[in-house]
Amino acid sequence: MPRTALVTCRPGPEVSVDHDLPVLVAALRRAGAEADCVYWDDDTVDWGGYDLAVIRSTWDYSWRAAQFLAWAERCGKATRLANPAEVVRWNADKRYLGDLAAAGVPVVPTRYFAPGDTVDLPDDTEYVVKPTSGAGARFAARYTPDEHERAVRQLARMHVEGFTAMVQPYVRSIDVAGERALQFFGGRLLHASRKGAVLTPGTPYDQRKVAHPGLTPWTPTPAELTVAERALAAVPQAPELLYARVDLVDGEDGQPRVMELELVEPNLFLSLHPGSVRGVVEAILAAAGR
Prior knowledge:
Elements lengths: L2 E6 L11 H11 L3 E6 L12 E6 L7 H14 L1 E3 L2 H7 L4 H7 L8 E3 L13 E5 L9 E3 L4 H13 L4 E5 L4 H4 L1 E7 L2 E8 L20 E2 L4 H12 L9 E8 L5 E7 L14 H12 L2
Parallel strand pairs: 1-2, 1-3, 3-4
Antiparallel strand pairs: 5-8, 6-7, 6-8, 9-10, 9-12, 10-11, 12-13
């Protein structure tokens, strides 16, 4: 049976606990596979000794993006990496939303401001500022037009630290309909979930947020499935994806739009969908055996 590494990060005060990991390790071992939890930045690991390395909860990667992407390249040369290193590199920078939009995928309108750029913030609507490289709503905040100075200070802090900022209109439908996360594994829809608004008015950008508040199971609509599949089909060079999460919100026209396409380290929410464990294990074993 194949030897599989489930790749995670070291625990820390700003890192969430991956409750899926022990469940997956136990399920893979019950299926007869050798499965290990491995830190991505552990220099003693022989990645070539694994048949497959599956990125699961490397939730500190956005703070050390260059180091993480270099690791993905090395690991992908030593063994089969899921998702592939070129996908990780593309998806680690949320400017990929521009690529999706160019391919005709409906996305939340987004503008980008790199260090040194002249910043032009909205003056007639609520908006969100966050980094193009980020996870768990880190360095994200919601502003009204009269909070211009607070937003400028956040942008200045982000630019000093080398982050490119992205600015999006606040999608008001989130407050009513929430955000829907469609999870794919092994090329098929695994399950879907719905969560409430992450960003509340007045919450400082540098305050830790609850990334998935009010999470509940969700049955995707045909329109949501169509948009999610269009987003996955628009990933450059049509790579084989072991896993994906497509986060959707409703635009002003009531139709689903992509808020985020997570191809690096999506939380699987297996505690909410325990029946999905078997499908995940089967897909991992199939990928490891190729």
